[in-house]
Write a structure and sequence with these properties.
Blueprint: H1 9-16, H2 20-55, E1 58-63, E2 66-89, E3 94-99, E4 106-107, E5 112-116, H3 119-161, H4 167-207, E6 209-211, E7 216-221, E8 228-229, E9 237-255, E10 267-272, E11 280-294, E12 297-307, E13 318-335, H5 337-340, H6 355-359, E14 378-385, E15 388-399, E16 403-406, E17 417-423
Antiparallel strand pairs: 1-17, 2-9, 2-13, 3-5, 3-8, 4-7, 5-6, 7-9, 9-12, 10-11, 10-13, 11-12, 13-16, 14-15, 15-16
Length: 426
């Protein structure tokens, strides 16, 4: 039979960690853990407090209102076009036999550009001319016959008065004259008919030679030898000629929101991608009352005229125009960045310690960055007074995109207007 021996109390305490030494070690670990946690909390609070103190001090960047010239412009895009361009076509159906010009050639009014095949027309002209000559001969013959019967009528009248000719002969002579006059009239009508046919053929022959209607430059040549052209077809256009490219026009599309400020005669400048950084002077010639709607955007066409004496600008170039709609000479202005500034805000509760605030950024207040514009046109800016930004309401006018005109008297050139703030670093 097995004999169970009970453990001693000292052995049980040692096994369960209830001894004096074990309790001392546990208390020591607790003290060390609490000490480390206290150090972490103190360090975190110190870092947080330091950050809050640093955030409560700011360096402000300021600008002073300045007197300057302000030019208000409206932007629009379009293309460079010749003042006048003419599509030269042919009114005659035929085959192109010869082309005498190329693109970029300078031509004058009446210069021959191309010739069409006219052999068939020449043959027709020869036939009609022969018929005309025959008809003219018939007229001469009819006229001679008329003279003969008229002479016979005169003789019969003289004889009839002396009773040497009967009334029948006199009547026959009169009828003969009438017939001769009718025959002459028919022959003369044939002559006029053949003359008209000859004029038609001569007109067609003239159309077979394509000439320039204006002085200008050949922009496009669409005719090639051997090409068949049809007078009733759009493809009968053989050349496009631009009149005198030393003057050009820029057709731009002005947004409906800006069209109320744009007027004929206003000055403008425009730029093209071919000459970056360079602008060309222009002037508004015409404004269209008809609108154009593309992808829901309504625009109105404006035509700007400009000089091109050096022929640097070419038709088809994309142009960006800036139309001067207003000018302000030596007026008080402030930089637009002043209207975007909002002073930093300090929340009294933000000074309290929050573990989440150490790791998560605070959301800005709902009205942060909101720009206030009153119904009377007053806007808020902030002026630096005793090192702190103070709100001031000012009345504004036009802007050129960088500076805004100050029309009221609530701002002077001596004021320091805040445009940005940066937390001071220790």
């Amino acid at each position: 039979m097995n004999q169970h021996i009970l453990p001693k109390p000292a052995d049980i305490e040692a096994a369960l960690g209830l001894g004096r030494k074990a309790r001392a070690r546990r208390w020591l670990r607790r003290i060390v853990t609490l000490a480390i946690l206290a150090v972490i909390i103190a360090a975190a609070y110190y870092a947080y407090d330091t950050r809050q103190q640093a955030a409560s001090a700011y360096n402000y960047e300021t600008v002073s209102p300045e007197t300057r010239d302000i030019i208000v412009t409206v932007s629009a895009t379009g293309t460079v076009q010749p003042l006048t361009s003419v599509d030269v076509a042919t009114e005659m159906t035929g085959v192109v036999r010869e082309v005498l010009v190329r693109e970029n050639d300078v031509v004058k009014t009446g210069d021959v550009l191309a010739r069409l095949d006219t052999e068939r027309l020449n043959a027709q002209r020869g036939r009609v001319l022969a018929q005309l000559e025959s008809a003219r001969a018939q007229v001469d013959s009819a006229r001679a016959s008329l003279e003969d019967v008229k002479a016979d009528l005169v003789r019969q009248l003289a004889l009839h008065k002396r009773d040497f000719a009967s009334a029948d002969k006199l009547e026959s002579a009169q009828v003969a004259v009438t017939k001769a006059e009718a025959t002459l009239a028919v022959e003369e009508a044939d002559v006029r008919l053949y003359e008209a046919d000859l004029k038609v053929i001569d007109t067609d022959l003239a159309r077979g030679t394509v000439v320039s209607p204006i002085n200008g430059v050949v922009l496009f040549r669409k005719a090639e030898p051997g090409q068949t052209v049809v007078s009733t077809s759009a493809v009968s256009t053989l050349f496009t000629i631009a009149e005198d490219l030393t003057g050009i026009q820029v057709k731009v599309n002005v947004d409906e929101a800006d069209i109320g400020q744009v007027k004929e005669g206003q000055e403008a400048t425009f730029s093209v991608d071919a000459y970056r950084g360079e602008s060309f002077p222009a002037k508004i010639d015409r404004l269209s009352f008809a609108s154009d709607k593309t992808d829901g955007v309504v625009t109105y066409a404006a035509v700007l005229s400009a000089s091109n004496q050096e022929l640097r600008l070419r038709p088809g170039m994309t142009a960006t125009a800036r139309i001067v709609v207003d000018r302000f000479d030596q007026t008080l202005t402030i930089a637009n960045s002043a209207f975007r500034f909002q002073p930093p805000r300090e929340d009294s509760k933000s000074r309290s310690l929050s573990i989440s605030s150490l790791f998560l950024p605070r959301m800005p207040p709902p009205d942060r960055g909101r720009r206030t514009i009153g119904p009377d046109g007053l806007r808020s800016i902030y002026v630096l007074v005793d090192g702190k930004p103070v709100e001031r309401r000012v009345k504004t006018g036009a802007t050129d995109g960088r500076f805004t005109v100050i029309t009221g008297t609530n701002l002077t050139p001596e004021d320091q207007v805040v445009i940005s703030a940066r937390a001071a670093s220790n």
